[in-house]
Amino acid sequence: MTAVRVGLVAAGLAALGYGAVRLVADVDPLWYLVFAVAVLLGHDLVVAPAVLVTGRLLRGLGRIWTGALVVTAVLVLYALPYLLGFGRRATNPSALPLDYPVGLAGTVAAVWAVAALLALTRHLPPRHRSRTTAPSPPSPPHTPDASPSTPHTRPSTPDALDESPSTSGTTDPPPSTPDTADLPPSTSDTADPQRPASSTDEPPRSAR
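^ that's the sequence the OP posted. Answer follows.
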């Protein structure tokens, strides 16, 4: 695996060396130097100040339209060498084979169409933005259900115990009966054990 990596790196370095030699042999290096310096100076002295001034002037335009202007400026600068025909040769018709003005116009039109769509959706009222989704009705407030199985707490005071009925499920004890030992003996209920029991006492018969 290491040998394969070394071979790939060596092949890449060889290709870079061949390209550098051909670049110096076929093209004047001074022209590339002038081009690089012109690009740097043009960016620092022309493009950057123009962008800052444009941003100041178009501050009230909105972020959507300002972004569309910035993207359009970048596209124009990128397509400028193709629009001016740099590198076009009569002996090599495949160098710049496309219609670059038409391509730039279509790209800029697409950028501004997207910007217009964003601005339109932002200014629409909320009910026009989503027609398919209806707002869900508000949920009713949660009320605790009165469960019959909830144990009832008995009051702790004696008065409350007498007034409120018991709900614990136990029956009240029967009323207490007075003890018969404490009552005086009744003459009607006491009978002679040797006397036969009868329903009524007959009066004594007189001797004839």
